Amino acid sequence: MIVVEDLHKHFGGFHAVDGASLEIKSGSITGLIGPNGAGKTSLFNVIAGRLPPTSGKVTMAGEDITGLPPHVLFHKGLLRTFQIAHEFSSMTVRENLMMVPGGQSGEGLLATWFGRGRIAQEEATLLKKADEVLDFLTISHLRDEKAGNLSGGQKKLLELGRTMMVDAKIVFLDEVGAGVNRTLLMTIADAIIRLNRERGYTFCVIEHDMDFIRKLCDPVIVMAEGKVLAQGTADEIMQNEAVIEAYLGTGLKNKEKAG
Questions:
Q1: Same domain for 189 and 83?
Q2: How far apart are CA 158 and CA 194, in angstroms?
Q3: What Enzyme Commission number(s) does the record list for this chain (predicted)?
Q4: What is the DSSP string of 161-195?
Q5: For the ranges 86-100, 106-120, 122-136, 212-226, which has the lowest average pLDDT?
Q6: Which of 76, 115, 201, 223 could disulfide-link to 34, CB 3.0 to 4.6 Å?
Q7: How is the beta sheet containing 29-33 ordered, strand by strand?
Q8: What is the pLDDT of residue 259?
Q9: What's the first-to-final CA gap in the chain, in angstroms?
Q10: Would you place residue 116 in the very low, low, confident or very high pLDDT band (cuts 50, 70, 90)?
Q11: Total domain count for the chain?
């Protein structure tokens, strides 16, 4: 679905992404791991249109999407979440979901005067869909809670729910487990798996928790110093000497040898 070819992103003399090439296949849950500073989030930002590439190419289902802005990619079904959740804190959980779809009639001034019936019908449809999403994510009890009052894990579930309010084709999840307790993390993992299997979502996941990666992801891509270092199953990656050296550390490598 997504093909990245020789992608570069430079910040002055710093090469955050330095010739990365990879493929995210349709229907997969692809893991993206690597040490801090490996270029993972910069790669996400370029693919998702938040940063222009220095050079290289990104295609989605064969279409060149290199450098397209986020709102255009949104309408093509490419969405991303962030390490720190971006909720509208003063709005309820349900309202956060309902505002996601674009082109709503209520956004136009004239429609608020002359299209009230259409607006009411749209809102009823959105309300029903938002409640279905909340039931799917098992957080329907939070529908009327202010989003700013949610825990870190609940906010990550809300971000995942927002991707369900539109026809998402591929979702990039940036450290979905950061600051999330184990129970909620497994709830998030189960939701991702269900979205993948039942609704055909394709995911690419940045995460440092290898248990989470092993549960969800195949394949796993490893980045280091802006480049793709290795790719394989989670078990293959964990046994890869280059990965152990660059990502897991020489200390672990030596410990495993001693064991």
A1: yes
A2: 16
A3: 3.6.3.-
A4: HHHTTTT-SEEEEESTTTT--HHHHHHHHHHHHHH
A5: 106-120
A6: 223
A7: 78-80, 170-174, 202-206, 29-33, 220-224, 227-232
A8: 46
A9: 41
A10: low
A11: 2
